[in-house]
Amino acid sequence: MRPFEPARVVEWPDSIREGRRPTLAVWKFASCDGCQLSLLDCEDELLAVAAGIEIASFPEASSAVVDGPYDISLVEGSITTEQDARRIQEIRRSSSVLVTIGACATAGGIQALRNGRDIEELAAIVYALPGYIDTLATSTPIADHVHVDLELRGCPIDRGQLLRTLAALANRRTPRLPTTSVCVECKSLGTSCVMVAHGTPCLGPVTQAGCGALCPSFHRGCFGCFGPMESPNVDALRDRLIEHGMDGPEIDRLLRTFTPDAFAPRPVPPEGSS
Amino acid sequence: VSGRSVSIDVPVLARVEGEGALRVVVEDGVVDDVELRIYEPPRLFEALLRGRHHREPVDITARICGICPIAYQMSACAAIEALAGTEIPASIAALRRLLYCGEWIESHVLHMAFLHAPDFLGLDSGIEIAQLHPDLMREVLQLKKTGNRILEVVGGRPIHPVNVRLGGFYRSPRVEELAELSADLDRARSAAIALLEWVAGFEFPSTTGASAAEAEYVSLRGDGAYPICGDRIVSNRGLDVDVATFGEQLHQRQVPHSTALHASLGDGSDARRYQTGPLARWMNNADLVPDEVREVTDDLGLSPTETNPFRSILVRGAETLMAVVEAQRLVAEYVPPASPWVEVAPPAGVGHGCTEAPRGILYHRYRLDDGGLIADAVIVPPTSQNQHAIERDLRDFVGSHLHLADDELRRSCEQVIRNHDPCISCATHFLQFEIERSGSG
Predict the structure, then answer these.
(1) Which end of chain B has fewer surrounding CB within 10 Å, N or C?
(2) Which of A36, A38, A43 to mutate to test the interface with B (most CBs of B within 10 A)?
């Protein structure tokens, strides 16, 4: 995963400059649909969002599709086929502000576990006739293919963060997104540290905040679904995890789950060698 | 219309979870070929699960589907706990059932009000319905939100909940956290009845009906209550087996036009096609529908055996009401488990698990090695099992509705697909509609 460099200044589409309702399009690549579902899960705000933003293309929710260009595009999912690699270029051309949503779009997602492995062998495990299956050997984030203006992390994204981002964009503000670790959220919420208090292994110290430190509030260690914070010290955490009784393969599995390449851990031994 | 030849293209099938393509060929007034093509990019979960620890499928397989993650979490737990021979205490089973009720409510209401109802009204979206019926949709949104609230309180968040683990939960909700759901559930119960009454007023297209009426309907069989989790699989044609036996009979076949595998019972010439989902649950467990739900559905004219696929929206409505009633009971009776989870220590071997996702049974099988790592994983989502039924219904419908104009026929075909609430993310998507007519159609 290439380090993401957010645009310092979002170039506002004309509609927003002119005080018109911006148009929104929602796009899906390889993913589970969960991040775009977050928008439909905004039950209290959905109708208000629809009043403030023109939902021009959202196939999961509506069969009415308005042609682009669009002021704001939300992109879910990772690039895993040649066709999708071409499609994201077209979407970039027809979008003023492109926002990637979720771990698949921002980091390749769990399907990036294929990266560095033999894709034909993997496809043959699932399909009797892998020859019919058209897929790339890699699952890559959107920012590897086109310029991305903003990214919302998480598997899935945080609904509140999505709404605040849409509200900011509709009001010509650049949304503020956290760059600190989940630890900061635990401290601010007064949640006991699960590692200190219970010896529970936790990726909170290296994971970007944004979920409201959800897992620790359920007495569970963070599993890193928001991906790495800015400048994470993964090696230092690795040593702490070993002290908490985890072995190398366990730590590699923990780091390589929902944003498999993002924490840049030590090389993973081949499966079965643990 | 003699010699008529037509081709229609719809680049994306809207209002389904995922993307796929439909191809219908009509020649001389006879439906020659029907293909539901699913070419969602494959994500290869079963391959990626190999070498992972047996505690991980609970979180990993949830990512197959953002609409029904609890179904994946529960089927994964069921499979590995079955291998370990774990006895799940009643208090934990009750909390799981409450969590799953939250997913049924959220998923069924999303499908009914936002994806399926627009078809019956000739509209494009649920947002348009909200403009026409603001009072109803306000309550419907509250109902959907109540489902999500259950998922939040018990699971941590509505999509990919974090609180589920093998053997139970990381933390039991506090009594007062659940008690806060009561008022929402009371209001949701009225909304569920209002939604059901509203959809009961829709006009339901008649199909030729023959194929759907003769189909084999497969579901879990409840043990004293309408089934969500369970270990017995039955059909209206005499199937009655445990989950492991079902799994051994289950075959998946790859077809060239789809990245989703097609499921059948048995293989080769003996292969039996079947369908799963609300209609199957409803008819196989008619005696387990609570009285307070049956009273409502009797008044609205629902039969204990519904086979018209267009009427599946009614059964979803009945199941939504049932899930609300059940959630009310579970909240009222809640006593936190002595421990939020029990130890699960599976030996090497094979475990089978199956639970009722909102759109039908979801089967998982894992083979573990001596180190507790996954050597092999098989996941059969409901949409794989229903692909045959979807194509069968399309064939029936097109064959008996060739008099419709292309545009209307296309819209109706989309509705036929939505009758099954297909989750293409689950089954693996991009829907193009093509109809070719030739001859004297």
Answers:
(1) N
(2) A43
Rounded to whole angstroms, how far apart are CA atoms A15 and A52?
12
The beta strands (E) that lie in A58-149 are given as 70-76, 95-101
Question: Which residues in B337-386 belong to E strands, given as ranges?
Answer: 349-357, 360-368, 374-380
**Which chain A residues touch B167 with a CB distance below 8 Å?**
none
In the block, tokens 């698990």 appear at B353
As given in the structure block, the two tokens for residue B338 are: 């002595």
Report the distance separating Cα B111 and Cα B140, nearest Å: 12
Q: Is B158 in Cβ contact with A110 (below 8 Å)? A: no
Q: Which two tokens stand for residue B242?
A: 């445990």
* CA distance linking residue B169 with residue B178, whole number of Å: 15
- Give the phi and the psi of residue B105 in degrees, each rounded to 5: -65, -50
Which DSSP symbol is given to B19?
-
- Residue A261 CA to residue A77 CA, distance in Å, equals 15
**ipTM for this prediction:** 0.91
Burial code (b: 16+ CB inside 10 Å, e: under 16) for A171-195 equals eeebbebbeebbbbbbeeeebeebb
On the question of a cis peptide bond just before residue A156, with omega within 30 degrees of 0, the verdict is yes
Question: Would you give the DSSP letter of residue B112?
Answer: I
Q: Test A122 with B158 for CB contact under 8 angstroms.
A: no
Report whether A116 contacts A62 (CB < 8 A).
no
Instruction: Tell me the pTM.
Output: 0.92
* Tally of helices (H runs) and strands (E runs) in chain A: 12, 5
Q: d(Cα A256, Cα A254) in Å, to the nearest integer? A: 6
Inter-chain CB proximity B63 and A258 less than 8 Å: yes
Phi, then psi, of B98 in degrees rounded to 5: -60, -45
Q: Which helix (H) or strand (E) holds B88?
A: none
A-chain CB neighbours of B428 within 8 Å are: none
pLDDT by 10s per residue, chain B, length 441:
333 444 444 445 666 666 677 778 888 778 877 777 766 778 889 999 999 999 999 999 999 999 999 999 999 999 999 999 999 999 999 999 999 999 999 999 999 999 999 999 999 888 899 999 999 999 999 999 999 999 999 999 999 999 999 999 999 999 999 999 999 999 999 999 999 999 999 999 877 667 888 899 999 999 999 999 999 999 999 999 999 999 988 887 776 666 667 778 887 777 888 999 999 999 999 999 999 999 999 999 999 999 999 999 999 999 999 999 999 999 999 999 999 999 999 999 999 999 999 999 999 999 999 999 999 999 988 988 888 898 889 888 888 888 888 888 888 888 998 999 987 666 542 233 344 555 433
- Restricting to B residues 121-180, those with a Cβ less than 8 Å away from any Cβ of A are 124-128, 130, 141-142, 144-145, 148, 156-160, 162-163, 165, 169-171
Nearest CA-CA distance, residue B279 and chain A, Å: 24
Instruction: Decide: helix, strand or coil at residue B50.
Output: coil
Long-range contacts of A236-242 (CB under 8 A, 24+ apart): A237/A203, A237/A205, A237/A206, A238/A265, A238/A266, A240/A195, A240/A205, A241/A201
